[in-house]
Amino acid sequence: MNYECLGNGEGGAHIHWHLFPRRTGDIENYGNNGKGPVWWYPREKMYSDENRPSNDALEDMKAKLLCELDKLLI
């Protein structure tokens, strides 16, 4: 997991977090032989349609995340 904490002064000062779940090989061979933060992966590849999950995949991820979050409330 990579994470970053950012501050924002526009529209009211606040702090927010970005969480980047990771898996082995997710930045191919970029960075330090494939190891390093997600922002070492080329921006044009990161945001390409090829890397975009389908609506079904997004719904599946959402369901899994909600299931895990529900476990924290018990």
UniProtKB/TrEMBL annotation:
SUPFAM superfamilies: HIT-like. GO terms for molecular function: catalytic activity. A motif (Histidine triad motif) lies at residues 14-18. Residues 1-29 form the HIT domain. Signal peptide: none annotated. This is HIT domain-containing protein. It comes from Butyrivibrio proteoclasticus.
